[in-house]
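User: I'm putting together notes for a lab meeting next week and I want to include a structural view of one of the chains we've been expressing. I don't have a solved structure, so I'd like a prediction I can at least talk through. The sequence is below, exactly as it appears in our construct file.
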Amino acid sequence: MAVIDSYHALKDHLEELVQDGQLAQHVQKNNPSNTVALRPDSPPLGVIHMIYNLPSSAEVHIIQLQPGLPKPITPAKRPYETSRISFDDTDLDRVTLPHADPLVIELRVNRFTVERVLIDQGSTLEIMYYKTFVKLGFTDSDMLPVDYPLFGFNANPEYPMGKITLAVLAGTRSVDVEFLVVKLSSPYNLIMGRTRLNSMQAVPITYHQLLLFPTEYSIEQIRGSQKSV
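Assistant: Thanks for the context. Below is the predicted structure for the 229-residue chain, given as structure tokens.
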């Protein structure tokens, strides 16, 4: 019994050291070591433009998990009341009218500025296309396994290659996003679905080509790029 007690005491002590970051150099992480925390003032390593030589499309993907596999995310709490989200016709100054364009923006993902990010309220999930995954500097070993299919890309279920959680910088707000990586052709680099949009309390407005969301001190906005559509 003394040996067992000593073992558990040592195990608890080692776990405390890991939590404190004192054994970071000896701990093997499941997530890739080249993921980074993002700050608004940190410069990007580069820009990922349109990487698929396909005609643009306004098609909205309806991407759903297999029934019976919920993916709850607790909405982020706001520390105190901020300004009300609102918009008016002055926000149309840089919008080409008339249009039926989807909302396509750019975001900072890991260490890169990623263009052609589709804001898709019809999708419940966040999707990263494999060529984007490679452009971000990752390899297949950086993904964690996924054992459930997606529906909505085509007539048949589509199994993701894996998943990866990365820091995404929207304006001055950094959030961790779990992406499912799929190896399909698309005119977009990423799809941001309503799961993460809801957790950010974000309001997408396709007509005004705006994504608005609260931060700790104000309401911020990201303007869509119609030239990317």
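A couple of points you could mention at the meeting. Residues 34 and 154 are 33 Å apart (CA to CA). The chain has a mean pLDDT of 77.

User: Perfect, that's what I needed.
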